[in-house]
Amino acid sequence: MKLAYPQFDFCIESEENKANVLVIESPTFLRRVVSEIDSQIKTKVGSFVLSDDEILPFEKKAVIITDLFNLDLEQKKFTSKIITDLSLRAYDDENYTETVTFLSNAERYISEFILKSDIPLDYSVPSLEGILKVFNIKARAEGESLPEKLIDYLSLMNRVFSVNYFIIYSLHSLFTKDELKEFYRFAFLKKYDILSIEHTVGDKLDCEKYYIVDSDLCSII
Question: pTM to 2 decimals?
Answer without folding.
Answer: 0.84
